[in-house]
What we know:
The protein contains 15 helices and two strands. By secondary structure, the chain is mainly alpha-helical.
Amino acid sequence: SLVQVFIGYFGVMGILLRYVTxxxxxxxxxxxxxxxxxxxxxxxxxxxAISGSTILMLTVFSQCLTEVKVPGINYKRGxxxxxxxxxxxxxxxxxxxxxxMWGVCGIITLKDVLPRGHPARTDxxxxxxxxxxxxxxxxxxxxxxxxxxxSGVLGMLAGVLACTVESISYYPTxxxxxxxxxxxxxxxxxxxxxxxxGTMLAGLWGSGNGTNTFGENVGAIGVTKVGSxxxxxxxxxxxxxxxxxxxxxxxxxxxxxxxxGGIFCVMFGMITAFGLSALQYVELNSSRNLYIIGFSxxxxxxxxxxxxxxxxxxx
Length: 315
């Protein structure tokens, strides 16, 4: 995390950005989506009817009903309550899909259509909700003092550098999704430095994971077309509440896996698509560019498979 803070806040990232071109962005971003297909497939395959319905519903909401407006009640100081028409399906396609399919799974559970213990039932993880405390205040060092070792530092350093490259590829991708100009160098430096601070805080709190630009959120922006910072601020408040009110956080854990798998199939697909969309800025008549794209994408899929099959090859 200190390395990430240094290269971010001291402007080192601005120097490295000279070498970050669409040839870098295409394989980096698209492979993030492609590499997660196993996670999406594993969750979706728990019940293909539920996951398929989730994919279909999310597709209809986000692609077909975006211009359909529904009435709602709005309050404005000095004007009182009034009825407004807004694009519900354009703003909340993911949330609506999860709520509806979660409700369908709840009905299936009540009617005992599926056997007990099936991942599509809403009561599979209900014990997590029952056993979790109502309130818990996390604090630095709650799991003991952090330990430092050479192997741990080198391992985390490799992860931090990989996440840094991934993040600087995501920044222009998100800007493109939102119809904004590419972020300036100082903004990217600030973003990388802040990610380093987040990783440092995560280590102090003992969360077990660092802070990085989250690929699923990039996919969510692509589906919902919502890139407002105010939305992110509200989401931060919700996550803080989840961390303090354990019951509130546990509610999201019990979402049926097939529903999550269906959402993942769309989200990860959007990440891959936006990564590939950067090819429009690449000269594809150049054999050199084709070589770089082809080899970087293919070998990035080959090497992890070999590492999984031979975990003891590198000591």
